């Protein structure tokens, strides 16, 4: 099963989290971009959740991209200004041709 190039029309950045110590000795986390790739980003479902005094929108996405052994749920995708947290990474037929990622996007108001 190969990925048809015409289907991959969105640019996404694969990011990993790194931690450093600040001048006070406290750990701070930041995200760095590992790679930017072409992908197909498809919304799957959406819902709302009450958080504190506001409402957060929860949107799940299916992201299809060419295979990379570097992508895992420990990373995230940056789609424009939107952050997609990777929930799972599937390698269809274990052929190392493509990845299907299930991602979660939280939108706060």
In CATH, the topology is named Thrombin, subunit H
Strand content: over 45%
Q: What is the domain tally?
A: 1
Radius of gyration: 16 Å
**Overall pLDDT score:** 90
Percent helix among the residues? under 10%
How many beta strands in the DSSP annotation? 6
Spell the H/E element sequence.
Answer: EEEEEE
Which structural class is indicated by helix and strand composition?
mainly beta
Form type:
globular
- State the name of the first-level CATH class: Mainly Beta
**Terminal residue distance:** 40 Å
Topology:
Layout: E1 10-21, E2 27-51, E3 54-66, E4 76-79, E5 82-90, E6 98-108
Antiparallel strand pairs: 1-2, 1-4, 2-3, 3-6, 4-5, 5-6
Describe this structure in words.
The protein has no helices and six strands. The chain is mainly β and 109 residues long. The chain has one domain (5-108): Thrombin, subunit H, CATH 2.40.10. Strands 1-2-3-6-5-4 form a six-stranded antiparallel beta barrel. The chain is globular, with a radius of gyration of 16 Å.
Summarize the structure.
By secondary structure, the chain is mostly beta strands.
Keywords, please?
globular; 68% strand; six-stranded antiparallel barrel; Thrombin, subunit H; mainly beta; 109 residues
């Amino acid at each position: 099963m190969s990925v048809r190039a015409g289907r991959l029309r969105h640019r996404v950045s694969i990011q990993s989290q790194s931690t450093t110590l600040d001048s006070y000795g406290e750990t701070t986390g930041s995200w760095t971009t590992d790679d930017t790739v072409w992908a197909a980003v498809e919304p799957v479902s959406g819902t709302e959740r009450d958080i504190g005094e506001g409402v957060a929108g929860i949107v799940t996405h299916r992201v299809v991209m060419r295979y990379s052994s570097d992508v895992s749920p420990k990373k995230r995708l940056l789609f424009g200004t939107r952050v997609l947290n990777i929930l799972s990474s599937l390698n269809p037929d274990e052929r190392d041709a493509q990845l299907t990622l299930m991602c979660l996007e939280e939108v706060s108001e």
